[in-house]
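Students often ask why we bother encoding 3D structure as a string. The short answer is that it lets us treat folding as translation between two languages. Here is a chain of 227 residues written in the first language.
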Amino acid sequence: DGVFDNSGGLQAPSYGDLQREFKSALTYRPESALSDDMPRGDGHTVLVIPGLLTTDAFTFALRRFLTACGYKVEGWHMGFNLGPTARAIGGLSRRLERLNQREGGPVSLIGVSMGGILARHLAHEHPEQIRKLATVVSPVRFPTASTLEPLIRVLSPFYSKDVTPQDYARPLQVPVMAVYTKDDGLIAWETCQGADEHAHHVEVEGGHVTICRNPQVHRALAEWLAA
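And here it is in the second language, the structure alphabet:
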């Protein structure tokens, strides 16, 4: 309850938009942002969490780019992301702790779509372990509207009862950036910004499912991580 707006006040993307997303997944092959033109990273660890029903393969282009910029970039290493299950939350907490131990201090998080929801939960639970957090096309204000609502309702019985929409949207105590696109064909873009007054918001062009290949996103994240 409280996840989706069924009042009609918030417009979900259309199924035509969803069809466009699937088409772009096959045809969108942009030229990469040049890592040589980006500010050099300081070598700290960045954990990237993939979106719903995707694996680390989904974030490969983004992780490869940030590695070239000078960061130690890690995937989440837990297969398909089904959402905020107890397994996902517990596994991420343990992975974050291990990376902190290896780093000798806090690490940065990047959460893509549903991965951003999980990243925000980690930031609320373990703010001392997080250096910076970026959400990319992630709903951070609820209720939201999405063409994926039927799928998420099927999966929701498996989700942890310890995590609620109110938890997701609580202001964070760490530096945060929210990337969104008005071309989003899966999630109402308006809900991908605005949860934190101190957040840095960045609008990019392009679809939801190709966001990890998007050179505008690569550039925004590289500049923000180095700032």
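Translate back mentally: The first helix runs from residue 15 to 27. Keep this in mind for the problem set.
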